[in-house]
Every structure is written in C-alpha cells, then in structure tokens.
C-alpha cells in the first residue's frame, strides 16, 4: 500500500516508521503538555536549583524511561538526568529522533545533590561546540 498517488508518493510503511520514531520523542520531550515550564526562562534562576551551575563535556541523548533526556559526562560512569525532560527549544529541535546524540559542552544546574549510585537531576542553561551523531546499532556477538 502506498500513500499518495503522484510522482512523490511515499511507501505507507516508511511513513509510519518515521512517525513512530519521532512521535515518542515529541511526547517525552514535553511538547504536548499544557503544564510545560516556559522554555525561554533561565534554568539557573529556577528556585529549585541546589548548587552552582557547572560545565560538563559529554553526550546528550534520548532514553526510554524517565527522564527521557540524559547527559553522559564523557569519561565517567555517571549519568545526568534532565529534570522533567525539559530541554530549551533550540536544543530540543536538534534532537530529531531517538538515534540522535548531541556531543558538546553543556552548562547544567543541579536540582539534586551529588550522590554515589544515583542519577543527578539537572537543567541545561547553555551549550556550545555541539556535534550531532547518529547512535550506532549494537554489534552482533
């Protein structure tokens, strides 16, 4: 079955696969929710921030579960969770699907204290030197 009937017709399966890959990202990123915090507001001005903001070089990616967006600080075994999965709109627009990884330097502000064995929740204040990469599929054994 094909969608459309002209020269630019697209196979229905391909269209559905693309939709199914992007839709969960849109839902988890909060674009659907009326109670979303204003994305233009400064992260560091949030009264829930518990310590000074800091820079981290790492990989921002989407995950199943909560939080949907996480930053892995390169060279560590730690994971920073994006509080309420709220990303600034300009950063969110670069996350095209679950296979997109954004590598760069992020300024983040903590909502929870550092605690061994626990994911620290943060918000993203700013970023620089971003490079988008597609997540590689796992290797066969």
What does this structure look like?
It is a single chain. This protein has 141 residues and is α+β, with helices and mostly antiparallel strands. The chain has a domain at 54-134: OB fold (Dihydrolipoamide Acetyltransferase, E2P). Helix content is 15%, strand content 33%. It contains two helices and seven strands, in the order ββαβββαββ. It has helices at 12-28, 89-92; strands at 2-3, 10-11, 54-62, 69-73, 80-82, 100-110, 120-134. It has a five-stranded mixed β-barrel with strand order 3-4-5-7-6. A two-stranded antiparallel sheet has the order 1-2. Strand 4 (69-73) and strand 5 (80-82) form a beta hairpin. The protein is globular, with a radius of gyration of 17 Å. 18% of the residues are buried. Mean pLDDT is 78; it is low at 1-11, 13-20 and 22-39.
Low-confidence stretches: 1-11, 13-20, 22-39
Instruction: Tell me the fraction of residues in β-strands, as a range.
Output: 25-35%
The CATH class of one domain is identified as Mainly Beta
* Shape label: globular
Rg computed from alpha carbons, rounded to a whole number of angstroms: 17 Å
Structural class based on helices, strands and sheet pairing: alpha+beta
- The CATH architecture of one domain comes to Beta Barrel
Helix/strand order, N-terminal first: EEHEEEHEE
What's the tally of helices? 2
Q: Fraction of residues in helices? A: 10-25%
Question: Might you state the CATH topology name of one domain?
Answer: OB fold (Dihydrolipoamide Acetyltransferase, E2P)
